[in-house]
């Protein structure tokens, strides 16, 4: 009897474990469109440092994404054993070239471009300078890769409302070339980009709409108070950097780490919006006596002038000992963006439940974007008086669809020099041959009439040879 009970208990435990595993797998993010391309590689799959499988664009399956011919495969003759295999090869373009990806799930897509220079006997990477376009957006303009040690990863979120996403690489001049090491195109979760945000400027604070159908470039993704996070720690395969280099005032502040479970809720931040490792660490201001500290925690981020920026701030109260004790102010570019923020009310009276707020700001010419948190007039002594877990800063495309430079995609494409001179040379050659042939025939006719025995041009040039020469020259036009 005891054996039967034990078996029944074991069976129920196994059933519950499998059910929980099934729920866990079912809730995991599984994108409809998921393309990982290892550029310049002939391997069917390449496993990167984060255990993802990239398809070589020279393999039978991967070659269907590369629409252009006359591109060049390049391999690193002496790759670093510490670098990811996706940086051991590259695809080089000496003329405008395209990759096309079929889109089954229309909406926001994550687009990541990987660039890493390496030594090559055929190409000097100092000569690389190029533009990158995607479905009418200018992602990169006159882009160069300066760092020879570390890869550059350019991270975008692009609204795709067509059957294809086409990414174009174009050298800035005929003397330059473009290259790329790897491409990621992934359909994003529906809640990753909210359509509504709070516009913050020196004149007013108001709600704005239409963000969802924009193109965004992630300029900074920062884990406040915590360590660097790699794609292995993020369900959307993102990198998060520590906040130390951006923190401008930390006197009177501290860090906090949380080992409990982060309580994600419907309507709040999901695990795809921000992973556990962002929400289980933070920087905070806490009063240790009867008075509330009169200080703010501030971060500064260098940005490019002339654009709007989406500032996403991540909050999770992992420090309060009870609900209803934390009230604080949020400032963006020195402007009060959120007054008396009460995380307990926003998260339906739950501690350790994440929340994020989106603000849009205009860069006002200073080249620096600032974020601050600090006590409000509702803050209390002997409690936590401000907290911040993460910061994301994303550049918003301007009215011409530009994220870099001042020239729209159509003008960039038209700027590529046409090969008029190259086509003209064989045409001139063909015309010359026709003139010679006409002159020879004319001399023969004149010679036949006058019974002359000489000619300025050798008479052993046959009509057949002349025609074949003309056809050969014309075929090169």
Summarize the helices and strands and which ones pair or pack.
Layout: H1 2-27, E1 34-38, E2 46-47, E3 53-56, E4 72-75, E5 89-93, E6 97-102, E7 107-115, E8 130-134, E9 137-143, E10 152-160, E11 164-171, E12 178-180, E13 182-187, E14 196-200, E15 205-209, E16 215-223, E17 241-242, E18 247-249, E19 253-257, H2 276-279, E20 281-286, E21 297-302, E22 308-315, E23 328-332, E24 335-341, H3 343-346, E25 355-362, E26 368-375, E27 384-388, E28 390-396, H4 409-414, H5 420-450, H6 463-475
Parallel strand pairs: 1-3, 14-25, 16-17
Antiparallel strand pairs: 1-13, 2-3, 4-5, 5-12, 6-11, 7-10, 7-13, 8-9, 8-11, 10-16, 14-15, 16-28, 18-21, 19-20, 20-27, 21-26, 22-25, 22-28, 23-24, 23-26
Helix pairs in contact: 5-6
């Amino acid at each position: 009897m005891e054996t039967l009970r034990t078996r029944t208990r074991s069976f129920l435990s196994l059933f519950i474990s499998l059910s929980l595993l099934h729920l866990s797998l079912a809730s995991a993010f599984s994108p409809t469109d998921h393309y990982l391309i290892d550029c310049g590689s002939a391997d069917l799959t390449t496993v990167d440092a984060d255990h993802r499988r990239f398809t070589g664009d020279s393999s039978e399956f991967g070659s269907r994404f590369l629409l252009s011919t006359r591109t060049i495969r390049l391999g690193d003759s002496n790759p670093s054993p510490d670098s990811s295999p996706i940086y051991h090869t590259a695809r080089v373009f000496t003329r405008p070239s395209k990759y096309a990806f079929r889109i089954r799930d229309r909406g926001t897509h994550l687009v990541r471009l990987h660039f890493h220079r390496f030594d090559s006997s055929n190409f000097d990477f100092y000569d690389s300078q190029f533009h990158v376009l995607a479905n009418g957006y200018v992602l990169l303009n006159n882009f160069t890769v300066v760092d020879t040690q570390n890869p550059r990863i350019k991270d975008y979120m692009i609204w795709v409302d067509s059957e294809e996403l086409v990414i174009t690489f174009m050298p800035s001049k005929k003397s330059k070339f473009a290259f790329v090491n790897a491409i990621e195109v992934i359909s994003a979760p529906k809640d990753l980009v909210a359509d509504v945000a709070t516009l913050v400027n020196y004149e007013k604070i108001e709600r704005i709409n239409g963000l969802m159908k924009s193109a965004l470039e992630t300029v900074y993704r920062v884990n406040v108070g915590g360590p660097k996070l790699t794609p292995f720690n993020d369900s959307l395969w993102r990198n998060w950097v520590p906040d130390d280099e951006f923190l401008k005032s930390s006197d009177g502040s501290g860090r906090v780490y949380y080992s409990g479970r982060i309580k994600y809720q419907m309507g709040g931040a999901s695990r795809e919006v921000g992973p556990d490792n962002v929400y289980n660490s933070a920087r905070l201001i806490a009063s240790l006596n009867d008075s509330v500290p009169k200080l703010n925690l501030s971060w500064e981020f260098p940005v490019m002038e002339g654009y709007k920026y989406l500032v996403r701030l991540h909050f999770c109260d992992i420090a309060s000992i009870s609900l209803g004790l934390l009230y604080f102010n949020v400032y963006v570019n020195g402007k009060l963006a959120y007054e008396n923020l009460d995380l307990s009310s926003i998260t339906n009276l739950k501690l350790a439940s994440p929340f994020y707020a989106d603000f849009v700001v205009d860069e006002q010419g200073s080249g620096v974007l600032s974020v601050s948190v600090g006590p409000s007039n509702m803050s209390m002594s002997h409690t936590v008086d401000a907290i911040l877990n993460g910061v994301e800063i994303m550049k918003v495309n301007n009215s011409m669809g530009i994220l870099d430079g001042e020239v729209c995609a159509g003008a960039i494409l038209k700027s590529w020099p046409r090969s008029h001179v190259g086509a003209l040379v064989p045409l001139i050659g063909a015309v010359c041959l026709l003139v010679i042939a006409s002159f020879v025939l004319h001399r023969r006719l004149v010679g036949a009439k006058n019974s002359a025995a000489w000619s300025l041009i050798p008479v052993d040039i046959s009509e057949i040879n002349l025609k074949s020469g003309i056809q050969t020259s014309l075929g090169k036009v």
